[in-house]
Amino acid sequence: MPVQDATRPTPQTTMSSSPSPPTTANGGITITGGENEDEWVWNQIKAEARRDAESEPALASYLYSTIISHSSLTRSLSFHLGNKLCSSTLLSTLLYDLFMNTFSSDKSLLSATVADLRAARARDPACISFAHCLLNYKGFLAIQAHRVAHKLWALNRKPIALALHSRVSDVFSVDIHPAARVGKGILLDHATGVVIGETAVVGNNVSILHHVTLGGTGKVGGDRHPKIGDGVLIGAGATVLGNVKIGEGAKIGAGSLVMIDVPPWTTAVGNPARLIGGKEKRKDEDVPGETMDHTSFIYVI
Amino acid sequence: MPVQDATRPTPQTTMSSSPSPPTTANGGITITGGENEDEWVWNQIKAEARRDAESEPALASYLYSTIISHSSLTRSLSFHLGNKLCSSTLLSTLLYDLFMNTFSSDKSLLSATVADLRAARARDPACISFAHCLLNYKGFLAIQAHRVAHKLWALNRKPIALALHSRVSDVFSVDIHPAARVGKGILLDHATGVVIGETAVVGNNVSILHHVTLGGTGKVGGDRHPKIGDGVLIGAGATVLGNVKIGEGAKIGAGSLVMIDVPPWTTAVGNPARLIGGKEKRKDEDVPGETMDHTSFIYVI
Amino acid sequence: MPVQDATRPTPQTTMSSSPSPPTTANGGITITGGENEDEWVWNQIKAEARRDAESEPALASYLYSTIISHSSLTRSLSFHLGNKLCSSTLLSTLLYDLFMNTFSSDKSLLSATVADLRAARARDPACISFAHCLLNYKGFLAIQAHRVAHKLWALNRKPIALALHSRVSDVFSVDIHPAARVGKGILLDHATGVVIGETAVVGNNVSILHHVTLGGTGKVGGDRHPKIGDGVLIGAGATVLGNVKIGEGAKIGAGSLVMIDVPPWTTAVGNPARLIGGKEKRKDEDVPGETMDHTSFIYVI
Amino acid sequence: MPVQDATRPTPQTTMSSSPSPPTTANGGITITGGENEDEWVWNQIKAEARRDAESEPALASYLYSTIISHSSLTRSLSFHLGNKLCSSTLLSTLLYDLFMNTFSSDKSLLSATVADLRAARARDPACISFAHCLLNYKGFLAIQAHRVAHKLWALNRKPIALALHSRVSDVFSVDIHPAARVGKGILLDHATGVVIGETAVVGNNVSILHHVTLGGTGKVGGDRHPKIGDGVLIGAGATVLGNVKIGEGAKIGAGSLVMIDVPPWTTAVGNPARLIGGKEKRKDEDVPGETMDHTSFIYVI
Amino acid sequence: MPVQDATRPTPQTTMSSSPSPPTTANGGITITGGENEDEWVWNQIKAEARRDAESEPALASYLYSTIISHSSLTRSLSFHLGNKLCSSTLLSTLLYDLFMNTFSSDKSLLSATVADLRAARARDPACISFAHCLLNYKGFLAIQAHRVAHKLWALNRKPIALALHSRVSDVFSVDIHPAARVGKGILLDHATGVVIGETAVVGNNVSILHHVTLGGTGKVGGDRHPKIGDGVLIGAGATVLGNVKIGEGAKIGAGSLVMIDVPPWTTAVGNPARLIGGKEKRKDEDVPGETMDHTSFIYVI
Amino acid sequence: MPVQDATRPTPQTTMSSSPSPPTTANGGITITGGENEDEWVWNQIKAEARRDAESEPALASYLYSTIISHSSLTRSLSFHLGNKLCSSTLLSTLLYDLFMNTFSSDKSLLSATVADLRAARARDPACISFAHCLLNYKGFLAIQAHRVAHKLWALNRKPIALALHSRVSDVFSVDIHPAARVGKGILLDHATGVVIGETAVVGNNVSILHHVTLGGTGKVGGDRHPKIGDGVLIGAGATVLGNVKIGEGAKIGAGSLVMIDVPPWTTAVGNPARLIGGKEKRKDEDVPGETMDHTSFIYVI
């Protein structure tokens, strides 16, 4: 489970020997980005993969085929997802094409990918490199595949969006309905068992641990799933049900069952969940979705 | 998560323009069926798949190979499961044969399959067609494979039943012991992480969400797992342990821990679970396993 | 869910017609072992597989390729894991080599494997043979792969350790960070959704059910995950967060959220968890990790 | 290259300890057969495979999956061909089904298969068992697949017949047009590079070595390929072009180019071919297609 | 073996109900072409595939994945070749990319492909549709892969050109060195065993049967392989060795060994080959490479 | 087709900047060798592969997995053959093991491999590097697999030797009976269609082109195939039948049919073959199997 290690320099600092693009201050929930930054991250990934290939020849073949041989992050990611999600009846070439075409049709998908890579790198102390995340984080890969499925859904290509959805659920045990709207800078940590329903909305800079459910409560069709604000942190095994609103900067404790609105900058814990804290961001307060601070759960128990 | 949308007509009504077989009223926990109805559902599936293949050429190959090219639902399902569950050491041809032979040996398996398809279609608003369920619902596919494993177990072909069990657990993250007895008209929604133990019994028209455990409590061998009555609804992440009896029409709240009997038409919520409501069906009461109504959990909190 | 069935003889007794090696009394948390015993278990496995191949020709090919054709347990396990964990970009031959070389480099890995096989056989009434565990238990297989990943991590071969970690998470939905230290005689029962963090430590003779998290609480880098003592039992869906100490012989109830130390021979239940019982082993007390007794959870509720 | 070893007893004699069905004398070009004999050959094959599996554990998995686990020769052959000829776009399950259904629809296919097995066993000293031929002889396998393709062609299912034709040409380098008519008791020895055109006809008990072409001469559509009589032997690399008639019991020398009719019991050698010998069977003459005697080619040079 | 059937209308005529592009007279060795024609052929292919999918559901999946689902002939061919030539160490996605990029970089490749398709359709009576050739003719597929390998060779990307060369030789048994220059409108009929050396040149409208060698004679490095003029026909099993010149419109008899120049409009037959006929095209003479007339070989014997 | 280019320096000279082991003069049919030389060739291969990986990133994955990641030529070759020859029923891990174990059991196998690599490099001007041969030459790979099959045959492991034989014939279209004895320093150039019978013997430093048959003449069992002396060259499409002796340094013309003994240093050409030249090596005569000089065939015609 991730943590912002105070003694660990931010990526920008750590890698300052590499040509880093000018970035604005990374405070609040702002997402820095742009094509320069995307390029910089891709260059980092290739450099990391080359270093790893050098040190571990047994893995070099894998690193070349998935990363180093590719001319862009889009191509590398499409290749990797195509090979991860293919089956005997859904060929890798078909999926590769689908990913390439969809990523190429909307540049915002790539910048969301880069924001997610930065999120994993910044929030999860176990994430030792961008390449590590790109290759190995099933939460990261599931979200990228979801964004493509969501795009296809929006184009009314529902059957293929659902086929992709199904493959992601089989391969990664992550079940995000293609209609769900998911922001940028998302960390799905560990990710196994995450379920996000059809009308759910997830804001930017949200961190969600494994076994989290954003589900419905039945009976009412239409808009029936949770709306998660920016910067929210949802602990492992939490279940949020119904068309409830989890406000910006809120924190949902591990194992909680939440069926009510949670105001901004508020913590919900327990089964059923009780609320702690308040609707406004304190001056010095950190964004839970970014700091991944689960410790406050203790205090409230 | 599913819901019986009041504004959504039942399948029978929706598709009344198609040649629908005569059906009896679908009240209570009764399951309508018969060969005519099985045939009708298979025809629906093929029509849906043809329509989808037309609208999405990229998926047509998949739809033809898994559905349209097959002469029966048994064949289509056996093909699909064989290709989903095969591995480099358990070939698809072997599994295909195993499924074909087992389904052919007992006609009741197919009618259970059809009842499950109807359950998904009727209870889950996210299920947009029978074909969608057949192709993509890992809960549905896991149950069909389980029924075959259960049949093999009953014939004392334990090693192959357990091999199948293991493949289903690997591929779908659904772990149903081959000895467990499971009824008809079951919806395993989302399904990831469901665990059902060796001596568990699940009635008809039951709906079970993801991460649900029907487990043992150790110490006592033999009959040591829950018995789930007809029409029960079990919410996401609920854990039911021991040889307890969950009565007909009961409801188990999401995230609950249940280690006691739950009387019929009663709701259990919380960790540990408390009981609400009563042992007899109220005149106007709906069957929880069919309505998928999770909202009452809120009232009891 | 497993149980030590009082009426079921221990493996040693059951199979006393087979040439069983001299074993010391299996009391307390002691692990008997040695090369003789490893050999004895391997011989049992082959005998079981031959018997199953005889009775079930359709499975014989699988049993020969994974077990009977191999000259040692190391080879059989390396073959099986290589074929289970391979992908189109990480070939089975590469993984087979990696497993073979690592197991050969450290004999203690094999004796840990054997201890795990004995644990499953002794503690889980659903485990009908050693071969059953070797072939089908994803928790067992995930731990064996983890031990190899851990060895590679210790040799600073981090990228390949993480690639292995990722494959185990994809295929088995079991997520154990390669740096985590795990003892011998471990049973991961059902195993889906288990998450064990980077700095976690798991003692010997521990039993962990599915959906269990040994996670961090964020904010603090470095040593931030739970330390699980010998003989501990952790129930399904329990979440243990932070650098807390779960003492020897403790029991964590299903669905519990534990963010505090749990003294030895103590039970923690609920969300948040309360403690029951005491720090010293009563004279007649069984080891929870071995008896798998979940029933006491009921009494404390 | 095969030979009828005078010192080698015929299969019937060799295996007389096995329950052999009553057979008529095997003189001339007569083919003995019938269901009893088919069953006897299948039992031989299973016995051979079991013996080999016993002596070579590394191969046991292969032998079980392709032979021992199957209930009939049809099933075994369909499985083997399905797995040999499948590709990423033509799945083994589809091909298995196609073979099973076609073989089942016409019992004469199986008796032709058995006649081919007997031919290989009787004529090729390098053929050490029926199982050896069934598993390893690409000429044998190519003919069996051709017979299925031919059947499909006759049913006007041309596209799938041609797809099968193409797979056989890719995998075995044997190119027999689906429309070509091929008799029983055929030996395609070594088989690489054999080409048999659309309107060619091959009689019974014919032996054809590798690199043999039965081709057209262009210019004239319709019936444009050779007609090969019963009992003919065609040496390696021989090229027979045009709608010519190769009479019963004729012999075509290795490397010959034949563009003229060859009368019965006559030998053709050279490029272009000259004829030797005469149109009637001498009293003591053996059938070339059965004796595989290439030596007479020498005398005529 | 192919033939220009006098009674069979040319494709243009046959399919005149389809919208056919304006074409110039198809006399002599002229190749008609242009983007319109390429498009027309692609439309024909799709129409043929759709018709076949309709009539043969078992093949529909294959036809959709290889042809109907693609937006262009380039894409369809790249997909088909990628899946045919891939191996466990050279992934289909890599090859697909390589084919797509190379075809896109040089439009002349596609028009050569179309010329080859027309050649097969016009010259081989066994070729029943363009789709039949595209899907099933290994000679056609080998040449298309060769053109890509040749392009890569010309760009000094020799290792990957040779890897492609090797895969084509493994899969199709057609061995064309990437440096060899091959024209348009080529028919490699049956194709198994064709070998074309490094410095060989093959003109336009050439037809080459199976087992044909265009080889070197050793001793002299550099330019050491045959130069084949436009419109040449080379019969099955012919061997042409050394830097010899086979003139325009020449004919090489089946099974011939040619180590000398063959003047234009001349026939070479026998081992060693003798020459017949003369250096100038007779007024009414057909182009051998187009008419596929092998009959004249007979007259010269 | 190969040639000893006079202007091309021998490998020893070309690569003299690399640390080359001391070698004796390479005159006559002597094969230099020894462990030092084997090591030197392996180092060359790795250097070539690294250079190619650098220049062609798309191929780097392939080069790392097949060559660069391996610690020895034995391992690299076993991996490459295992992946080339595997099928859905004969897994790559099984074959890899079989190759590794057999190569390790007899060091002479590796030195024969190295001699073959040197033969290809020295005799075939199209062979641009040792790595090129190791990766892409199906004749080279077929011989290496044959040597393993031959070893298994000698150990009376006939069923697995024949299974390997069959795979080589399927994948490479090279059919060498496992019992055939083949020397060192062999070049099978192009290799498609080569057939070598059960009792054939091939000496050292022999070069054999594609479509060559060393077959039997039937009728006589036992020792019935050709014996090929050291340094022999056999041209493309030549057919040698019966237990005939082809003397040291002999040359068999392309397309010849040989059914008689050919004395040493003699050339046989034609169908049927005539002999030219004499039984003793002329003082200045080169070894045909090494020079690959096919030109003399011309003079004798």
TrEMBL record, chains A, B, C, D, E, F:
Q: Which pathway or pathways does this protein act in?
A: Amino-acid biosynthesis; L-cysteine biosynthesis; L-cysteine from L-serine: step 1/2
Which parts of the sequence belong to the Serine acetyltransferase N-terminal domain? 41-145
**Which BP terms from GO are recorded?**
cysteine biosynthetic process from serine
Broad enzyme group: transferase
Stretches for region Disordered:
1-34
Compositional bias (Low complexity): 9-34
Q: For this protein, what is the EC number?
A: 2.3.1.30
Tell me the superkingdom of the source.
Answer: Eukaryota
The family database entries (Pfam families) matched by this protein are listed as:
Hexapep, Hexapep_2, SATase_N
SUPFAM superfamilies, alphabetically?
Trimeric LpxA-like enzymes (SSF51161)
A GO term, aspect molecular function:
serine O-acetyltransferase activity
SMART domains linked? SATase_N (SM00971)
Annotated Gene Ontology cellular components are: cytosol
UniProt keyword terms in alphabetical order: Acyltransferase, Amino-acid biosynthesis, Transferase
Supply the PANTHER family for this chain: SERINE ACETYLTRANSFERASE
Record family assignment: Belongs to the transferase hexapeptide repeat family.
What is the recorded name of this protein? serine O-acetyltransferase
